[in-house]
Amino acid sequence: MSLPSDVLAADPPPAPRPPVLEMRGISKVFPGVKALEGVDLALHAGRVTALIGENGAGKSTLVKILTGIYRPDAGDILIDGQRVAFDSAEAAQDAKITAIHQETVLFDDLTVAENIYLGHAPKTRLGFVNWAAMNARATAILHSLDAPISARTLLKNLSIAQRHLVAIARALSIDSRIVIMDEPTAALSYKEVEDLFRILERLKAAGKAILFISHKFEEVYGIAEDYAVFRDGRTVGAGRLADVTHGQLVQMMVGRTVDQVFPKGEVVLGETVMAVEHYSHATEFDDISFTLRRGEILGLYGLVGAGRSELCQSLFGITRPASGKVTIDGKAVAIHSSSDAVAAGIVYVPEERGRHGAVLAMPIVENFTLASLRKVSRSGFIRTAEEFELARHYASRLDLRAASLSQPVGTLSGGNQQKVVIGKWLATQPKVIILDEPTKGIDIGSKSAVHAFMSELAAQGLAVVMISSELPEILGMADRVMVMREGRDAGTFEREGLTPERLVRAATGNMAEAA
Q1: pLDDT in tens, 300-323
Q2: Is there a single domain that holds both residue 333 and residue 394?
Q3: Is residue 41 part of a domain?
Q4: The last residue of a domain, from among 255, 281, 302
Q5: Residue 9 placed within a domain
Q6: Model pTM?
Q7: How many domains does the chain divide into?
Q8: Does residue 332 sit within a domain?
């Protein structure tokens, strides 16, 4: 996507003044995870700094530190050269810092004006909310943004783009000096992105220091003057965007080889088991086609908002497509529900296993048989002995580590919870298994076990779709990789000769360099 010429600055920006905000040596550790380690960042008045990095690089943790949600374990935050500490979100707001997230944190049942002035509404002399003044001030701010929105409209009646405008208006209402925009364009149309960038130019002209988080390099180069690249919780590059190329940013962003052991066995692929043709959804993805063969692991790679999970959830019957065709073993199947998908031989292991994959309070044995109760029931009654036999079979096959099968799933480690969810679906004897971020949040040892089992499934003829945001995992486990970008197929790549740079370039829209 190329941006209109009136969005781009006509002249080179002046040399930066001393930063409005500096972060020096910021570190944050969670149990077993170093989210940030010695991170540095500088934001300047009237300039946009692009924060770039893979999913999990530490960007969100940094934003939460800047907005007072987390406190750093080490390092300093300075505003105008003075050290500050935020012990709450209110403290960060008092320091004139505002964040505008991909999913705006606003309140549906309040009016636009109430959302803009929530927590700092104008008051009458008696201490009551001055509704007339609040509506008038909100209207004036919206007018300055050329936002055709009534201050008295309920927020729930607005589009996503209009909600972003309300969030920007809120930032202006508290005269924020530092504005953080976290993936603000992920759900916007081309025209809405143009409008947002024009507003960003106004914020720059007003002297705001802006942190712009995005995976889309064309947007980064269209609006930002400076950059910082995070990788694995560390700052690996920073400076002026004019001094680096797309390729150099990609190299800094991925900067690693497949340094983990991925037990990907060589498998002779069988016949086509699933074919998806011209599959579309009204809002999430468009014109997706691919085939999947027995024994194959197809990797789905893409950045935040690319539509990977939405595509697979539709294939599993969670949402309805607008058009398209799915065939299993050469026969067209109609998937209107998850039950239809399971009957057709398609199962889906969700990313959020604790919320959507397992019932954490229930014992392991009952979770294993949730999707295949007919196999262990007679005349409507569950046969406990058969239920335990089936659970023992898959617990052994998956090398589940648990004290007993009566143990609640919620007491297991993340890796063992994932094994229970996978086992639950394997008990239905599927033809296609979709694994959505299969190793998210689990330790290295458990990752290796899940990878080994994926290879085993493929060797036994099961067709696997693996959604992953981890490049080493994609490169180490997939036979082919389909990259999605903004709901569309951005290219399919064979395993041989595939590099992280090619995948990231395809995912970020640099198709000429990805070829």
Answers
A1: 998 777 899 999 999 999 999 999
A2: no
A3: yes
A4: 255
A5: no
A6: 0.56
A7: 4
A8: yes
Q: Is 147 exposed, middle or buried (0-12, 13-18, 19+ CB in 10 A)?
A: buried
Q: Cα separation of 384 and 379, whole Å?
A: 14
State the angle between helix axes of 190-205 and 160-173 in degrees (0 to 180), rounded to the nearest 10: 10
Given this model, what pLDDT does residue 190 score? 64
453-484: string of b/e by CB count within 10 Å (b at 16+)?
A: bbbebbeeebbbbbbbbbbbbbbbbbbbbbbb
pLDDT of residue 287: 94
| 197 and 169 assigned to the same domain | no
pLDDT value for 12: 53
Domain boundary among 229, 255, 281: 255
pLDDT, residue 136, reads 94
Q: Domain limits at 396?
A: 355-429
* CATH number, residue 81: 3.40.50.300
Q: Under 8 Å CB-to-CB from 311, ≥6 apart: which residues?
A: 279, 281, 284, 285, 288, 300, 484
Tokens of 301: 């790679």
pLDDT tens-digit readout, 448-481: 677 887 888 888 889 999 998 878 888 889 999 9
Q: How many other CB atoms sit within 10 Å of the CB of residue 94?
A: 13
